[in-house]
Amino acid sequence: MDAPFPSPLYIFAAWRRRTTNPKSPPTKFKMPSFSWKSLLPGCFSETTAAGERRKKSQPAARRVAAGTSPQRISFSDLSNSSTPLSPQDLSLSLVGADLHIFSLEELKTVTRGFSTSNFIGEGGFGPVYKGFIDEELRPGLRPQAVAVKLLDLQGSQGHKEWLAEVIFLGQLRHPNLVKLIGYCYEDEHRLLVYEYMSKGSLENRLFKKVIAVLPWLTRLKIAVGAAKGLTFLHEAEKPVIYRDFKASNILLDTDYKAKLSDFGLAKDGPQGDDTHVTTRVMGTHGYAAPEYIMTGHLTAKSDVFSFGVVLLELLTGRRAVDKNRPSRQRNLVEWAKHYLCNPHKLDRIIDPALEGQYSTKGVEKAAALAYQCLAHSPKSRPNMRTVVETLEPLLELRDIPMGPFIFTVGGPGETEKNEGDDEEMAERKENSRRNMQRRQRHKARLLQSSVCTDTELYRAQRNRSI
Ligand SMILES: Nc1ncnc2c1ncn2[C@@H]1O[C@H](COP(=O)(O)OP(=O)(O)OP(=O)(O)O)[C@@H](O)[C@H]1O
Ligand SMILES: [Mg+2]
C-alpha cells in the first residue's frame, strides 16, 4: 500500500503488521512527497502537500480532516494480527491521541464502586455508570462528569468492539462525535470513559413516555447535528463508515447538540478504486440498508439509509421496529415510506404528540429528504453533505403555530426553558430504577435481537420479501 509521508504512528502500525504477520506485504512510503509544506500545512494555506493548487470547490473536511491526525491509523492495521495488541502497544500506537489510560481501581473510585445509584443504562456492550473526574485523579484533568462503559464479559460484544471504539474515537475529534476521554485495559477488563451527555440518548428522549415531548425544532437540530457527524466521517481523509447509526447511538448534551457514540461496528471506508467494503453483515434490525443486508457490500450510502430511518423516527415519533404495533405497522420504513412523498397524506404519519406545532414546509422538506435517503438503490440516495445542506435551512422556518409551552432552539447555548436540573435528577433516578429492573430481561433479549449476525439479518429481510 502506498501512503504519503508517514507519521510515527503510521510507521509503528506498519512495523507491527510486519512483525506480527511476516507474510503481509511491506508498506511503501512515498518519500518524494515529503516537504515542509506537508509537515506545516497551515503555513502554506493554498498549496497541498503534493504541491498542487487546491481546488476552491473541494470540501473543507477533505482538505484537512479537522480533528484527525494527518495519518489516522486504520483499525485493520492494529487489529488484523495473530497476536493481540498488548496494553503497551496500544498506548504507543495512540501516542498523541490525547487519551488517558485509567486503572480499574481508579474507575471504581470515580463511579463510587460502580454503584447502582450511578447506573445510567445498558446496551450490548455492557453497563454504563456516571462518574466524576478531576485533578485529584490525574494532574491536568479538567473537573467533569463522565460516563464509564464497562465491557460485560458474558455479553454479545468483546475486545474487538472495544478496540474499534478506542482506535476510531481516540483519533477522530469533531463537535458531533462524543469525546472519548480515556480507557482501561487491564487483564480481562475493558472500559471506556466518555464525556457525560446529560440528556442521554435520542432513543430515550424520543420514545420514553415519561419524558416531555421533543419539540419539532429540537428534533431538527438533532438531525442536523447527527448528519454533520456522519458527514465528517464520510469526508475524512481516510473515510469511515459508521455502520450502526440509530437513535440509541445518538447522544444529546444539555443543549440538545447531537453526538455520535459507539464505534464498535465502524469500518474504514473503501480505498483507491474500490467502491465498497465487503463485511460480515452486522447492525440493528430496522436500520440496516437492504443492499448491505443482501450482499454484505458496505458503502457510505448504507449510513445514509440508516439516517433516513432515524429522520423517519423523528418525524413520526415511532420506533424503527415496534413489535407492539399491528403487523403491517411493525417495520416503520415499510409502513411509512410511501406517505413521505405525498404532502396530502403526510399528516397520517407525523407524530401526533407534536400537536401540529411544526412548520408544514419544514416537515414536507424533511419528509421528502427521508424518502430520498431510504431509496432502494444506494446511488439514488443523497450524500451526507447534501443532507446537511437540505436540513439546516429548515431550522430558520418559523411558521410554527403557537403552543402551550415556550422554547427556543438553534444557536449554541440556547436551551429549552421548561426543563430544570430537578427534573433531570428525578428523571435520572427513575431511569436508573427502571433500568436496573429491566437489566436481566434486557440482557437475555439483547443476545437474540440487537446486534445480529449476517444470517439473522438476511433471514429477516428474506422473510419480509416472501
Ligand atoms: N457518554 C454518555 N453520556 C451519558 N449517557 C450515556 C453515554 N454513553 C452511553 N450512555 C447511556 O448508556 C445507555 C447504554 O448505552 P450503550 O451505548 O451502551 O447501549 P445502547 O446504545 O442503548 O445499545 P446498543 O448496544 O445497541 O448500542 C444508554 O441509555 C445511553 O444513553
Ligand atoms: Mg449505543
TrEMBL record:
Per the UniProt entry, the Enzyme Commission number(s) are 2.7.11.1
The cross-references to SUPFAM superfamilies, in alphabetical order and at most eight, read:
Protein kinase-like (PK-like)
What cellular-component terms does GO give this entry? plasma membrane
PROSITE patterns, A to Z: PROTEIN_KINASE_DOM, PROTEIN_KINASE_ST
Has the keyword RNA-binding been applied to this entry?
no
The record's section on CDD domains has: STKc_IRAK
| InterPro entries cross-referenced by the UniProt entry | Kinase-like_dom_sf, Plant_Ser_Thr_Prot_Kinase, Prot_kinase_dom, Ser-Thr/Tyr_kinase_cat_dom, Ser/Thr_kinase_AS
The answer to keyword Cell membrane applying to this record is yes
Quick one: where's region Disordered? 50-84, 408-445
Q: Where is the composition biased (Polar residues)?
A: 68-84
Gene Ontology MF terms in the entry? ATP binding; protein serine/threonine kinase activity
Bias kind Basic residues: ranges = 435-445
What positions does the domain Protein kinase occupy? Answer: 114-395
Q: Where in the cell is it found?
A: Cell membrane
Keywords, ordered alphabetically: ATP-binding, Cell membrane, Kinase, Membrane, Nucleotide-binding, Receptor, Serine/threonine-protein kinase, Transferase
Family classification: Belongs to the protein kinase superfamily. Ser/Thr protein kinase family.
Please describe what this protein does. May be involved in plant defense signaling.
The name on file for this protein is non-specific serine/threonine protein kinase
